[in-house]
Amino acid sequence: ANFCSSNTQLRRSTPTLELSVATAMAEADLQLTAVVKDGTALGNLIPAGSLSKEEGVQGIAGNWQIPGVTEPIELTISGMSVVSVQKPFGHQPIMGEIEESEQLFGMHVTMGGFPMKAWMTQDGGKKVLAFSNGGRWSRQ
C-alpha cells in the first residue's frame, strides 16, 4: 500500500532554533572553576619511586619553572588545597586538591579550565611536578 500520495504535503512544526553569537560564545568558553576528582584513580597513575604524600605536601609550595615560560609560577598550599598566585592559563589560577588516600603524593588539578592529575618525582636532586597531560615543572 502506498501511504503517501502526490497530494500529501509535509509540514514542519518544529521551530527553528537560533542561538545568538553571545550564547554560542558562552558555550564555547565553558571552563572548570573547581577541582574535579573523578576520572582515573591517582594510584593507577603515580609511578613507583615518586615522592611520598608527606614529601609532596612539604615541597609543593614555592616557585615552579614551566619549560618555555620565563617567569616561574608560585604555588601556595592551605590544608590539602593548592593554588597558584599567578593566573597563567585562561586568566585562572591553577587549582589542586591533594589526594589524602594515597601513600604517594598525588593531586587532582584544574589548569586553564581543564582537569588533570599530577604527582611529584625527583630528577637530579630537583623536585619535578609531573602532570597527566605530559607537562613537567621543576622546583626552583
Structural description of this entry:
Mean pLDDT is 82; it is low at 2-8 and 10-30. The radius of gyration is 23 Å and the shape is globular. The longest helix has 8 residues, at 21-28. The protein is 11% helix and 31% strand. It has 140 residues and is mostly beta strands. Strand 5 and strand 6 (114-123) form a beta hairpin. The protein has two helices and eight strands, in the order ααββββββββ. An eight-stranded antiparallel barrel has the order 1-2-3-4-5-6-7-8.
Q: Layout of helices and strands, plus pairs?
A:
Blueprint (H helix, E strand, L loop, with lengths): L20 H8 L24 H7 L2 E4 L7 E6 L2 E4 L10 E4 L7 E6 L2 E10 L2 E6 L4 E4 L1
Antiparallel strand pairs: 1-2, 1-8, 2-3, 3-4, 4-5, 5-6, 6-7, 7-8
Fraction of helical residues: 10-25%
Q: What global shape is seen?
A: globular
CA distance, first residue to last residue = 80 Å
Tell me what portion of residues adopts beta-strand conformation.
Answer: 25-35%
Rg value: 23 Å
Contiguous helical run count: 2
Order of helices and strands: HHEEEEEEEE
Reading side by side through the largest sheet, how are the strands ordered?
1-2-3-4-5-6-7-8
Descriptive tags:
disordered N terminus, 140 residues, mainly beta, 11% helix, single chain
Quick recap of the structure?
The chain is mostly beta strands and 140 residues long. The protein is built from 2 helices and 8 strands.
